[in-house]
Q: What sequence folds into this?
């Protein structure tokens, strides 16, 4: 369900994206050029100066007439302004320079966990979480309800911050405010869904997908409800605590269920 709806949502986003900006993602004039990016530079009425250049590891490109130009760390629009200023120093009168990003290579993020194609991904301009998720083939069937983003920060005493995305709210409920932009260096992990088990006198004893704020009564309902032989007052939970199994007796129907819990509904004596 989550995977299917993700694809539908992303399709809508993609259509909106193409409508607003066109298929060429070089619209991002605020994109910061970096190592590996390929820039296409044109100068109005000077076709001989048209240049396609890859940004070096030192943030430098080669441009006709003016030679090496330091562009690393500049936005695309700033690159155009810098080249125009250099050309105006005795080479071209009132140069009008346009810069497009033909290949984005300098901004990357890692997407791991419960996605079909985990790995390192290049961020082409402004990339949202759903766009990156689509590149990774979507969620696996074992994906949980959360994605955790670890992001570098310049805050004093804090090397990184953690951002949690509620996938259920984003994908199933369509809360698009959660579809945040992914930044260079982000590390994203889609957690695996938890499971719990219901056994004994229920209609459908089995393992079930865990949900937050799950109670015993909801878990029993998911398992089809009690059988006629069930003892509703002697429910117990087998729970792992510090690697050891602990049996919780006298469980109430409104008690909270945790991942990996085993809910046991015994047979009534009468």
A:
């Amino acid at each position: 369900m989550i995977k299917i709806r993700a694809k539908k949502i992303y399709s809508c986003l993609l259509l909106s994206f193409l409508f607003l900006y066109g298929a060429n993602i070089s619209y991002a004039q605020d994109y910061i050029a970096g190592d590996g990016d390929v820039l296409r530079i044109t100068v109005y009425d000077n076709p001989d100066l048209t240049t396609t250049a890859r940004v070096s590891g030192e943030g430098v490109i080669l441009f006709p007439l003016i030679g090496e130009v330091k562009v690393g760390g500049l936005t695309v629009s700033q690159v155009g302004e810098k080249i125009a200023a250099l050309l105006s120093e005795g080479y071209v009168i009132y140069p009008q320079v346009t810069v497009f990003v033909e290949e984005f290579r300098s901004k990357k993020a890692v997407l791991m966990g419960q996605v079909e194609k985990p790995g390192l991904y290049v961020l082409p301009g402004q990339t949202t979480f759903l766009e990156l998720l689509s590149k990774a083939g979507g969620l696996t069937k074992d994906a949980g309800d959360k994605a955790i983003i670890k992001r570098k920060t310049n805050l004093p005493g804090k090397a990184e911050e953690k951002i949690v995305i509620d996938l259920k709210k984003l994908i199933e409920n369509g809360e698009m405010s959660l579809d945040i932009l992914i930044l260079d260096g982000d590390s994203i992990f889609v957690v695996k869904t938890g499971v719990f088990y219901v056994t004994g006198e229920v209609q459908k004893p089995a393992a079930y997908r865990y949900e937050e704020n799950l109670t015993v009564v909801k878990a029993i309902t998911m398992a089809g409800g009690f059988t006629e032989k069930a003892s509703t007052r002697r429910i117990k939970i087998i729970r792992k605590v510090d690697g050891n199994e602990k049996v919780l007796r006298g469980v109430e129907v409104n008690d909270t269920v945790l991942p990996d819990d085993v809910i046991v509904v015994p047979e009534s004596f009468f």
Remarks:
- Residues 157 and 224 are 51 Å apart (CA to CA).
- The first helix runs from residue 2 to 21.
- Residues 32-103 form a domain with the wza like fold fold (CATH 3.30.1950.10).
